Amino acid sequence: MKKPVKTTLAALIAAHCFVSGAMAAEGIKLNGFLTTGYATASGFEEPYLERIGEDGNTGDTHFGLNVAGSLDEHWSVAGQLYASGAEGNYNMILDWAFASYRLNDSLSLNMGRIKYPNLLVSDYYDVGLSQPWVRPPQEIYNLEAEAGSPLVFEAFSGLSLGYVVPMGDYELGMQVYGGDGAGEMYTITNMMGAKLSFGNEGLSVIAGYNSHTITMGSKELDAIVQALGGTVVESDGIENTVINYGISMDMFNVVLMFENATATADEVTTTGQYVTLGYRIGNVLPHVTSASRKVDDEEQTSLGVGIKYNMTEVSDIKLDYTMVNMEEAGEKIEGKVISFTMDFVF
Length: 346
Fold this sequence. Notes:
Helix content: under 10%
Oligomer: single chain
Order of helices and strands: HEEEEEEEEEHEEEEEEE
Distance between the termini: 18 Å
């Protein structure tokens, strides 16, 4: 990637995540992104990701608009509205929103709804231009699962304290946080986590820890059950612990990403990992990704090849071809997924 593009992406991600909690200038700022996409799949007994089949699907299309304002030299606020076609409705939601207090150039406190920070791309998962793939490897980033994923979730409501230490051309970052959250069919409580990061524009090394209680069911699901005349059954929470680490490198035209996450819940261990390798040729980035996820005796693996072409500094075209192998209850399933997207930021 050319340096101007990398600078644009770095600025976008900084604006999207607001890691430091500080604004570059006073006033209101608007940033956003748009992805339009189409995908088709074959060989699966059920639609891939519960939506992609042989007839094709446009659910990868999504739009985000974030607004931020600096109140004074210490306080700033930010939020993002987001709509996705993954469920076919494009309903607008409040994706994240928080107030940030900058104590000094190194220390900041965020309060509100905050994106899950621990993984390499979890806090800007939806910003397609910042990633090589059409969608991040689902062996870790399976955010579309209705029952939730033990390895990752979208956001939480609570507090986050971040500390950044400059080290020459690099930065050492430390973040601790806590709160609760919810998905369509589950709630998360008693969450505490930490993330350690080190790197610069071309290199990022991360490690994270998260522990929380998962309880199946949600207020929305309970309301539906009661409306249908059913009885809501209280379920016991399950303690889940996640440990992850990874590295991302974009130097000398080589793009390398590796990540591993392991979750332990109720004596069930889930391990997901992937490695992506690409080589940049001008504005073109061909890449290959190998990924796996194992839950006790069940395993899913995938091998994908893709190509990303940067049309401009703020737009790209991507095409991915992924072969997915699943093994469930001794049955093997081999499927293929073809995905195409166009990404824009503004």
